Amino acid sequence: MIPAIYSNLCPICHEDLSTEEIEEQKCTRRNTKFEKAFENKEAEQFFQFFSSRIGEPRALQRLWAKRIFNKESFAAIAPTGIGKSTFGIAMAAFLAKNGKKAI
Ligand SMILES: [Zn+2]
Q1: What is the C-alpha to C-alpha distance for residues 74 and 76, in angstroms, rounded to an integer?
Q2: Tens digit of pLDDT for each residue in 69-82?
Q3: What single DSSP character describes residue 15?
Q4: What is the Å distance from ligand 1's center to 11 Cα?
Q5: How far is the CA of 51 from the centre of ligand 1 (A)?
């Protein structure tokens, strides 16, 4: 992953979020795992859906999914080739399969 800092996007402390924190799935400021902010059964179902059709989701894709199921509104900003489009298509298919809509 290309090192980057995402301003004010840490799901725990809401301050800057680094790629290292995304890889570790942990806020280093508060020493708290991201899963504490996003404990969600639907996200786990999506990870299984994604894994069975595409492969293991990347850490950033897992973070985006958790944010979606946490009903957050956000922009997925990442360098080319990280998997934004793949994520979007997979999420739209998962939501449609469960009777929901995606734009
Ligand atoms: Zn943080």
Answers
A1: 6
A2: 888 899 999 999 99
A3: S
A4: 7
A5: 27
> For a pLDDT cut of 90, what percent of the chain falls above it?
75
Q: Which residue has the tokens 């080319």?
A: 80
CA of 103 to the centre of ligand 1 (A): 29
Q: What SS3 state is found at 18? A: strand
Q: In the beta sheet, which residues pair with residue 49?
A: none
Distance 9 CA to ligand 1 centre (A): 8
Summarize pLDDT for 4-33 with one digit per residue, the tens. Answer: 999 999 989 999 999 999 999 999 999 999
Q: How remote is the CA of residue 50 from the centroid of ligand 1, in Å?
A: 26
Give the DSSP letter string of 21-72: HHHHTEETTTTEEGGGT---HHHHHHHHHHHHHT-SPPHHHHHHHHHHHTT-
